[in-house]
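PROTEIN DESIGN WORKSHEET
SECTION A - STRUCTURE
LENGTH: 97
TOKENS:
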């Protein structure tokens, strides 16, 4: 799939999640928090960042419908759906928005 140019320009930044992660690491070090607590909190934030990044990837990919018709090497012309199918995408880290 190819990202649509208009959607790339409107893509949200992941810095809204990375900046607080870095700030948390600095604050935890300054406070002398136990490593096991900091590790767990960082992993939770990294998982949230991963979900957001995958969601961004899927948004940028769009529906994947690049044309109403395509030709195969055998000259058959399959026709896809005229509308995207609504629904959620299930994946190992949860369900997409």
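SECTION B - SEQUENCE
RESIDUE ASSIGNMENT:
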């Amino acid at each position: 799939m190819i990202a649509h140019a208009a959607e790339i320009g409107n893509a949200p930044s992941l810095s809204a999640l990375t900046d607080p992660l870095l700030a948390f690491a600095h604050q935890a070090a300054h406070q002398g928090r136990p490593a096991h607590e900091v590790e767990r909190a960082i992993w939770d934030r990294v998982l949230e960042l991963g979900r957001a990044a995958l969601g961004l990837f899927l948004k940028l990919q769009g529906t994947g419908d690049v044309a109403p018709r395509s030709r195969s090497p055998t000259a058959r012309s399959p026709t896809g759906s005229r509308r995207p199918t609504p629904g959620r995408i299930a994946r190992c880290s949860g369900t997409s928005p």
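SECTION C - NOTES
The first strand starts at residue 90 and ends at 91.
Residues 21 and 42 are 7 Å apart (CA to CA).
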